[in-house]
Amino acid sequence: MLQAINLSKKYKTKVVVKEVNVELFAGESVGLLGPNGAGKSTTISMLSSLVQPSSGDVLWNEKSIAKNPDPLRKALGVVPQEIALYPELSARENLAFFGRVNGLKGELLATRITEVLTKIGLLDRQKDIVKTFSGGMKRRLNIGSALLHKPSILIMDEPTVGIDPQSRAYILETVKQFVADGMTLLYTSHYMEEVEMLCDKIYIMDQGKIIAHGTKEELKELVSDNQTIELKTNLLTENFEKNLKEQFPQATFRIDEEILTISMSKSEEPLANIFAIAAASNVVITSAIVKVPSLEDVFLHLTGKALRD
């Protein structure tokens, strides 16, 4: 349905996307996962015909969009990372504008606006000015503007950035329903759990390159010989962490608030040594959990750094 072939983008001397190959089939839900600055948004912009690639090609239904992007644009809905709304207009007026841009008018436009407002949970706020909306409401309206013309494929570029947990949960459930209804979806994020929840096939991108792709199960097989240990302590000291790294030089470490996560080979049986090091470092371990590999473990295995760095 949509395919990128050796897609690259260079700005002056900086190459931001390097020979990316991605494909979406009808009805698929595909995640593009990577940290900030990985090249996801630039890739999305090229796939949606907003940015010309420096080299490579984008195919829509096996035809290049380089000279004629209109068939793709008519079938495509795009939810950009930045809010793209008119703050001085009401929710309904915003949707009316974007509907007309997509060729809708008259009774059909009015009907679609009401349907979309209902779907995104803003029907009761349709006459309110957008600048009075919360961040989550603006995000939902941003999504709604991409749905008016009933696109056959939807591209969403980090649609939950900077919003409260309730709005994020609402948006994810809404997108989950799109997928259940058969929408073809390309979803970019640096939130691992979102992609794992929504997507059947996943591409992992870092430093402008696709470094791995496959189903969730296939990607987890890359670290099937690994284990992850999550430690909670009363006090996480530099000396404790230093001693752990000396004891387990092949392991990968990351700290998220008060939790120390260690990824290492299953062949090691580390808990006794970890508790001994903690005692010697005057650290009390309050919780130790051994977990099966996750998608974040895959990312750490491939890049050696936490996804949200």
TrEMBL record:
Alphabetical keyword list: ATP-binding, Nucleotide-binding
Record's keyword annotation contains Transmembrane: no
Coiled coil (UniProt feature): none
Highest taxon listed in the record's lineage: Bacteria
Transmembrane segments annotated in the record for this chain: none
Domain ABC transporter positions: 2-232
SUPFAM superfamilies named among the record's database cross-references: P-loop containing nucleoside triphosphate hydrolases
The UniProt record lists the keyword Nucleotide-binding: yes
Gene3D superfamilies for the chain: P-loop containing nucleotide triphosphate hydrolases
Molecular function, one GO term: ATP hydrolysis activity
One Pfam family, short name: ABC_tran
InterPro entries, A to Z: AAA+_ATPase, ABC_transporter-like_ATP-bd, ABC_transporter-like_CS, P-loop_NTPase
Protein name: ABC-2 type transport system ATP-binding protein
Species name: Psychrobacillus psychrotolerans
